[in-house]
Amino acid sequence: MLQGQLVPAYGFVNAQAAMTYLQGCVYSGHRLVLNWVKNTSSLGTSSHSTGSPLASSVASPASRSDTCLYSVFVGDLSLEIDDGLLAQAFSQFTSLYDARVIRDPKTQISRGFGFVRFKSEADAMESIVAMSGQWLHGRLIRTCLLMN
């Protein structure tokens, strides 16, 4: 890959997990409000619906903390790393909010990367510097900030 060029990529997304994870987050200066959409019979129109049984379990932005979360990508993870071990590795940063290892949707085997989120931008930045190149379960991990 040449620096500055975009490379086409794809991924698998669980809609409910994405809604739960992103609901109320700030993106490009706007707070996200995510809802289920139900197609109507006429092409090109849709009606918003919160009637989905899954949608009712998603916290509304008003019920979530107004704190913006800062996400850090963590790559080259050992396959033995789970959410708890990833969180433990970053637990020295007091504003750690959560940690998640990404898994194959069919096999549930780790994809070798994950994300940690912080309430503090300073902790997110410090974690990138402190943790990049550190050994975690026999692997050198790499970190970088995700931009919203």
Automatic annotation (TrEMBL):
Q: Name one GO molecular function term.
A: mRNA binding
Keyword terms of this UniProt record = RNA-binding
- Show where the RRM domain sits: 70-148
Signal sequence segment: none
Q: Out of the domains of life, which is the source?
A: Eukaryota
The cross-references to InterPro entries, in alphabetical order and at most eight, read: Nucleotide-bd_a/b_plait_sf, RBD_domain_sf, RBM42_RBP45_47-like, RRM_dom
Q: Reply yes or no: does the keyword RNA-binding apply.
A: yes
Tagged with keyword RNA-binding? yes
Q: Which PROSITE patterns match?
A: RRM
Task: Identify this protein by name.
Answer: RRM domain-containing protein
Please report the organism this UniProt entry assigns to the protein.
Malassezia equina
